[in-house]
Amino acid sequence: MPTNFPMPAQDRVRDVLADLMGRTVTVARTAPVPVEIDGPGPVALADYAADGGEIGVLCVADLRLTNALGAALTMVAPAAVDEAVERLRIDDPTIDNFREVVSVLTSLFNTSDTPHVKFREVHRLPSELPADTVHLLESPRGRRDFDVSVEDYGTGRLSLFIG
Fold first, then answer.
1. Most buried of 48, 93, 96, 146, CB within 10 angstroms?
2. pLDDT tens for each residue of 115-144
């Protein structure tokens, strides 16, 4: 596993998301909850690889936040988020939009003192994950959880796992 990547502070997460969304975003630290690979509801998990290919960072967003970020990015009506959550669904266009969001979040993890990391893939859980992603999910060197509220789109959970 690569050397430690920086653990982003809530203000930095807020600033990156607010700049990208073009609207007010609030971010607050919260207690961690288990992320279940085979859990009952959909979750989006993005993994980031170092230049050598090793997974160094995971970003997990719950159903509501994945839909909120995806909808806000392309200015889809906020009611679509509630509908998707009611249906327990993360559709393909939302995953595509979420992919853009997590790609931009890469800036949170790159410093001059750590290996360069780049976004690798978004996985819609429940699903089978690559072994290196599962390993980091189960044994991170650090973890930070946030409640993220996107103006007009609602609040969800974002969890960062750092290798």
1. 48
2. 889 999 999 999 999 999 999 999 999 999
**Maximum Cα–Cα distance across the chain:** 44
Rounded CA-CA distance 89/114 in Å is: 36
The token pair that represents 77 in the structure block: 């009506």
User: Domain residues of the chain, as ranges?
Assistant: 10-31+42-162
The CB-based long-range contact list for 50-54 (8 Å cut-off, 24+ gap) reads: 50/2, 50/115, 50/116, 50/117, 51/115, 51/116, 51/118, 52/2, 52/115, 54/1, 54/2, 54/132, 54/163
Cα distance between residue 62 and residue 96, in whole Å:
16
Q: What angle do the packed helices 92-104 and 63-73 form, to 10 degrees?
A: 80
Note the pLDDT tens digit of each residue in 96-108.
999 999 999 999 9
C-alpha atoms less than 13 angstroms from C-alpha of 11 in its C-beta half-sphere:
0
